[in-house]
Amino acid sequence: IEVVNADTFESKTTITSNLNNPRYIAADENNIYVTNWADAANPNDDFVAVFRRADHAFVKKINVVEGPDQILIENNKLVIAHSGGWSNGNSVSIYNLSTNTLDNIVVGDVPSALEEENGTVYILCSGVTWGGTPSSGKIVKLNLATNTITQTINFPEGQNPRFLAENNNKLYYSLNNQIYQIDTQSNSLPETALFTSNATAI
Q: In the predicted model, is pLDDT for residue 200 greater than 90?
């Protein structure tokens, strides 16, 4: 992990220890949290590495289920999407930073993106496209105060959305070469795309 000055991009330090196949990173005022696949062929060695923000010293390792990828921090909780490593995951972990307790919640196949707004975590599950029985995607809404799913919106068969962004109470995701917009309070998918792009690998 390369730590740089946000204004000048000058290198401040490099973190190389206590990492094993690092994936994504998040930080609060005190610590840095890094998801690690470790040995992707071993389903039992995945973890989140915690480093102190002030001096980048290693704090601890949080063991989690296989395939931790995207991570966010909100309401003093870590939310970790388990896409599955070399397999296909179907859950998110929620680690309470106050109590040091870990919950794992099944949400849908291959949770690949996370966004949070007003206490709700929006989870985009892309569905299985390789290495297992094919499945379509989902948008799952999770109440972060209670760690419970409040709504699931299923994509039609054969649709595997990717990426997710939130702005002004609207969610944006990609499907093939099209970008879609959906209100965060909506309970159904949009029928038409916001726009289509000729770019590849959107």
A: no
Query: For a pLDDT cut of 70, what percent of the chain falls above it?
Result: 99
Please give the Cα distance from 14 to 32 (Å, whole number).
Answer: 13
b vs e for 97-118, b when ≥16 Cβ sit within 10 Å of the residue's Cβ?
beeeebeebebbbbbbbbbbee
- Rounded to whole angstroms, the Cα distance separating 97 from 76 reads 6
